[in-house]
Amino acid sequence: MDFETIQFSVSGGIARLTLNRPEKLNSFNVQMHGEIARALDALEADATARVLVLTGAGRAFCAGQDLDDRAVKPGDAAVDLGASLENYYNPLVRRLTGLKMPVICAVNGVAAGAGANLALACDIVIASTAAKFIQAFCKLGLVPDSGGTWILPRLVGSARAMALSMLGTPVSAEQAEAWGMIWKAVAPEALAGEIDALAGHFATQPTKGLSFIRQAIRAAATNSLDAQLDLERDLQRAAGNSADYKEGVAAFLAKRPPTFTGA
Ligand code: LHQ
Asked: Rounded to the nearest whole angstrom, what is the distance from the C-alpha of residue 165 to the centroid of ligand 1?
């Protein structure tokens, strides 16, 4: 596929989407949103893909919205930032969180604004110790978006979410790990190896069961215990009908490694 602002590939069950505007710290413009949407269309249509890895090219992960983009730059014409969220960021977060496979984020460098919250919307976030997370919105008179006001308090609690959002204080990768904001912080030179190992693992795992797990954990943020018990029953029923469940049990009883197909 011909992309300019991203790189996208699927190989060996692993889909990789790399934000690729390094000179602008991989900030989002309309073209990049369009190209990501096309890549996600291709991903959803690709039955071989079993895990998505999201990362950034160059020294940054993503600096959020490109503040130089005509679609969001205050000028003579009125700009509707709500429309920008409605048309681009909200669909992106909805699609990423709704994918039927694990989504890993390799935060290779600074993640600011919508870039920070895009990373936090992923299932497993591993960050280089060269990275930091910045809720930069308050410095522009804006509100954290891309799900930031929803996910951040759930990850780090209201007190930290409020201060980080109102002050825009950078959070180091190590601090983010200590606070439970991300899964792990690793040395910059270890990031690619960690991500490859994790993606390679997921490419051989029961994809359907994993997608039910992410669905259940995400639903738990708003469900009552009663509703969650019902959801677990429904998802377990569906998981129990999967080929991978049969294979997992058969492999266990035969004392051999399972061969999961993702079905
Ligand atoms: C950039 C950007 C950038 C353009 C670095 N845009 N050029 C949603 C809906 C609609 C509208 C509004 O927003 C949103 C959501 C949002 O994401 S709002 C938040 C937008 N993002 C920010 O406010 C972050 C702005 N960037 C920064 O604060 C810094 O660049 C960080 C802390 C990310 C990195 O700092 P440094 O490592 O010191 O790099 P730098 O500032 O020197 O940036 C390098 C270049 O990248 C520089 O260009 P230049 O031509 O001077 O080399 C920057 O202008 C450019 N750049 N972020 N968002």
From this structure: 17
Task: Measure 48 CA to ligand 1 centroid, in angstroms.
Answer: 36
Cα–Cα distances in Å, from 101 out to 110, 211, 263?
25, 5, 11
Tally of domains in the chain? 2
CA 206 to ligand 1 centroid distance, Å: 39
Residue 76 has pLDDT above 80, yes or no: no
In a domain, 114, yes or no: yes
pTM of the model: 0.97
CATH assignment at residue 238: 1.10.12
Tens of pLDDT along 21-68?
Answer: 999 999 999 999 999 999 999 999 999 999 999 999 999 999 999 999
Q: Are 95 and 128 in contact (CB under 8 A)?
A: no
Alpha helices in 78-224 (DSSP H): 81-84, 90-98, 114-120, 148-156, 158-167, 173-179, 188-202, 207-220
Q: Is residue 245 part of a domain?
A: yes
CATH code for the domain in which residue 180 is found: 3.90.226.10
168 and 232 share one domain: no
50 Cβ inside 6 Å of ligand 1:
no
Q: Provide the pLDDT for residue 75.
A: 80
C-beta of 84 in contact with ligand 1 (< 6 A) = yes
Mark whether 93 and 158 lie in a shared domain.
Answer: yes
Decide if 113 contacts 234 (C-beta within 8 A). Answer: no
Nearest CA-CA partner of 28 in 138, 127, 129, 146: 146
Q: Are 28 and 64 in contact (CB under 8 A)?
A: yes
